[in-house]
Amino acid sequence: MNAIKVGLIGLGTVGAGTFHVLQRNQAEIRGRAGRGIEIAMVAARNPERAKAFQAIVGDGVPCVGDPQQLVANPDIDIVVELIGGIEPARSLVLQAIANGKHVVTANKALLALHGTEIFEAAREKGVVVAFEAAVAGGIPIIKALREGLTANRIEWIAGIINGTTNFILSEMRGKGLDFATVLKEAQRLGYAESDPTFDIEGVDAAHKLTLMSAIAFGVPVQFDKAHVEGISSLQATDIKYAEQLGYRIKLLGITRRRPGGIELRVHPTLIPSSRLIANVEGAMNAVVVQADAVGTTLYYGKGAGAEPTASAVVADLVDVTRLATADPDHRVPHLAFQPDAISDTPILPMAEVHTAFYLRLVVADQPGVLSRITTILAEHDISIDAVLQRESAEGERQTDLIILTHDTVEGRMNEALAKMQGLPTVLAPIVRIRKEELA
Amino acid sequence: MNAIKVGLIGLGTVGAGTFHVLQRNQAEIRGRAGRGIEIAMVAARNPERAKAFQAIVGDGVPCVGDPQQLVANPDIDIVVELIGGIEPARSLVLQAIANGKHVVTANKALLALHGTEIFEAAREKGVVVAFEAAVAGGIPIIKALREGLTANRIEWIAGIINGTTNFILSEMRGKGLDFATVLKEAQRLGYAESDPTFDIEGVDAAHKLTLMSAIAFGVPVQFDKAHVEGISSLQATDIKYAEQLGYRIKLLGITRRRPGGIELRVHPTLIPSSRLIANVEGAMNAVVVQADAVGTTLYYGKGAGAEPTASAVVADLVDVTRLATADPDHRVPHLAFQPDAISDTPILPMAEVHTAFYLRLVVADQPGVLSRITTILAEHDISIDAVLQRESAEGERQTDLIILTHDTVEGRMNEALAKMQGLPTVLAPIVRIRKEELA
Asked: Where is the ACT domain (chains A, B) (predicted)?
């Protein structure tokens, strides 16, 4: 059988990685797919990259500057979009679909924001849009959720799905350094971009979480409803106190089914140190899935980088090569559920989210302070799990009071926090970090 | 579209679990599969189970005593074999295939021993034999290896793939108890069978490893070539010393590609305590896969039990429902590689396997003992990584000498061990446990 013909848009890190993996492992890949997978055309904006690429592959594979030429090429069966960002990626993907081509993409931002439009267009044309590489790099988590766990009612997903922030948090904990210092180190080592906003503010994690949530619960992608909170204001002090209490702080993406709707949130989270996911260090990713039949499963690996991401892109190419011959109604649905089974379950506002909390209050070191604070919590029906008070030094007038609460509703906690913050004995803004047992 | 019709052979733990999961989650499953999955007939040897089942489902689903009747039923599209063991399972599966039915099975022993015959029969009839439930229960590891990592040249797999032994080892370490005591506790709690041989001697793990090895490396299933060693002779003392040196002992199934062939072995193994897999406790399973593009990935979850195993059985049912409409040449191949891409790379004999070693020698506490032992190791070109000597008590004439070696070839270690054992100052049989860094 003839090789399937692939057009590759983008020769950056992942584009080059995809090319190399396909070349290096072509015998293994053909042995699995039953058909060769051949890059038939490449589009790269950067003329130097294009030239370097052409020097490697010779004239056999045309490399064009204009990606329009690639998506219009009638010889191409599958378009691989690896340029990232919204435009021109969105237009190129939609044109490829309109031209009847399957699409493989690693573009989480595009799908989290415009997935509904793109999947609908693909359905109408009977083509596949595959996106394993968009979430957690080389970990086959989309496949696990969409195909491996089809028997289950999924209850929640919690993931370390951004390597940059996990690297920073690991270094802050391991070396006791503050955020700004570690960020600079991460930038020097290439773990963080020169403009790190998307990573450190949780946006990248929220894009990925939005996709997992849609697949897990059979709802449309709704990035605009996600709560997004990063790690830039996290203090080394709280990492240390959390550790004393038996917890680690991780930036988690959490999505959970509740009676009234779905929670969809990215924020720093205390998790018990004994959990496997609490021990995921450095730039690694891991996703925990809780489901009714299988119980807890965890998936771990590299969430970024040229070849780990290429691993997912190529796995999608093999899948699409197989699916191309299947009856479209029996392919794996883009969002795991058939279009007529997608539900309109709402995404819950943060005020209705259930979590436990870690609170750090800088308080006057005088009698009655703890009692006033615990009274406020009791009035809001928030029960206390543990209290830790720093031993104040001789002559010191203030101290740190750490409180771990049991699960409560966030809106109620916000009210209690406002009251506590108003106490004259509370001397600084209260630090509040959500806490999950993940059990 | 009409529901696909399933015949279920076996109403034991997994059979009942499969029935319950299909019932409870039928809306979700249909939403994903695009088609209902309906149990149309059940076969159960045990008349009481059959009666209890009939009482639940009423007369709508016939329950027969003779499974032949089920595999011969022309209305059945997929036969689910959940009776385990070799016969009559083998004959029933082959008959189902001969009758043009797809098969889903959790039977690792059957496939590890007779997989070649069964997959060949399935290929000839153009049907699928799916077996996600045969390895690591609900963890979708077969899917990850066969479909998620298709881009990769897989280098090695190391897995905790038997929950009974991992429970026993966790308890031995956690409570400092010996093997026999913990085995009794495990039997009382239902984690170990009354005849626990298959689990504790590593046979069950070797069945599963054989399947993963075939899929990873594109070779036939060859259970007869596997090295199988269990945990029944493991001593609490060695778990303790390993811990002092920064290691945990796990029963691992390891398969690794080497220049001259493939290693295929199950044995107790020291692994660094900092590895994620070293922290997998209790009856949980985990599999680490090392592959060239993606790097290290890990998959964790429940490896046994009614619903975790049913989760995998039902995922296979959904897959088969989809694949049923695909061109047979483009389905996922049973052993990941197309039949013409299966290689005859040999399985290496244990004498040619590379590992590091933990040695515990009971030696006379006198000068020159360590020197004689290290000389023997040096003569065999085995280099030492660490030495730990127990402080001997006042007046005690003997002590424990623990040696960790670097990687060597097992045959060479066997020769060195024979020489060491012959020394008059070595007072007891030397304990030897293999050690892997898994990095």
From this structure: 358-434
B159 and chain A in contact, CB less than 8 A: no
Average pLDDT over residues A117-124: 96
Task: Give me the number of domains chain B comprises.
Answer: 3
- Distance between CA atoms of residues A377 and A199, nearest Å: 34
**Inter-chain CB proximity A25 and B276 less than 8 Å:** no
Q: Per the domain annotation, does B127 fall within a domain?
A: yes
CA–chain centroid gap for B130, Å, is 17
The contacts of residue B409 (CB under 8 Å, 6+ apart) are B351, B352, B353, B354
Q: How far is CA A326 from CA A219, A320, A329, B325, B326, in A?
A: 25, 10, 8, 6, 4
Domain span including residue B62? 4-137+306-341
B298 chain-A contacts, CB cut-off 8 A: 298-301
ipTM of this model? 0.95
What are the pLDDT digits (tens) for B188-215?
Answer: 999 999 999 999 999 999 999 999 999 9
A210 forms beta bridges with: none
Whether residues A285 and A310 fall in one domain: no
Q: Does B129 share its domain with B181? A: no
Q: Which residues of A are catalytic?
A: 208
Helices in B176-288 by DSSP H: which ranges? 179-189, 197-200, 203-217, 236-244
What stretch of H or E contains B247? strand B247-258
Q: Cα B116 to the chain's mean position, in Å? A: 18
Say whether residue B296 is in contact with chain A using an 8 A CB cutoff. yes
A238 Cβ neighbours under 8 A, 6+ residues apart: A249, A358, A360, A431, A433
Is B192 in a helix, a strand, or coil?
A: coil
Q: Which residues of A touch B315 (CB under 8 A)?
A: 147-151
At residue B412's C-alpha, the angle toward residues B407 and B418, to 5°, is 120
Q: In the beta sheet, which residues pair with residue A177? A: none
What are the tens digits of pLDDT across the range A242-282?
999 999 999 999 999 999 999 999 999 999 999 999 999 99
In a domain, A119, yes or no: yes
In the block, which residue shows the tokens 């290896």? Answer: B145
Please enumerate in sequence order all residues whose Cβ is within 8 A of that of A269, keeping only pairs 6 or more positions apart, or say none.
Answer: A158, A249, A250, A251, A252, A254, A433, A434, A435, A436
- Asked if B127 and B100 touch (Cβ cutoff 8 Å), the reply is yes
Report d(CA B209, CA A341) in Å as an integer: 38
- Which of B35, B293, B300 has its CB closest to that of A297? B300
Contact A298 B301 (CB under 8 A): yes
Interface mutation vs chain A, best among B13, B145, B275, B311, most A CBs within 10 Å: B311
- Active-site positions of B? 208
Question: Is residue A46 predicted with pLDDT exceeding 90?
Answer: no
- B292 burial class (0-12, 13-18, 19+ CB within 10 angstroms)? middle
Q: Which CATH number do you get for residue B394? A: 3.30.70.260
CA separation, residue A375 to residues A52, A355, A371, A379 (Å) = 69, 20, 6, 6
Same domain, B292 and B333: no
Q: Residue A313: in which H helix or E strand, if any?
A: helix A306-323
The answer as to whether B214 is a domain residue is yes
Query: Would you report the helix, strand and coil content of chain A in percent, each value rounded to 5?
Result: 45, 25, 35
Please indicate, yes or no, whether residues B14 and B120 belong to a single structural domain of this protein.
yes
Interface mutation vs chain A, best among B23, B294, B316, most A CBs within 10 Å: B294
List all residues 6 or more positions away from A16 whose beta carbon is below 8 Å from its beta carbon: A53, A306
The confidence score (pLDDT) of residue B331 equals 83
- At A339 the pLDDT is 85
pLDDT tens-digit profile of B361-414? 999 999 999 999 999 999 999 999 999 998 888 888 999 999 999 999 999 999
Burial, B439: exposed, middle or buried (Cβ in 10 Å; 0-12, 13-18, 19+)?
Answer: exposed
Distance from CA of A265 to the nearest CA of B (A): 24
Q: Is residue B183 part of a domain?
A: yes
Check which CATH number belongs to the domain holding B224 and give it.
3.30.360.10
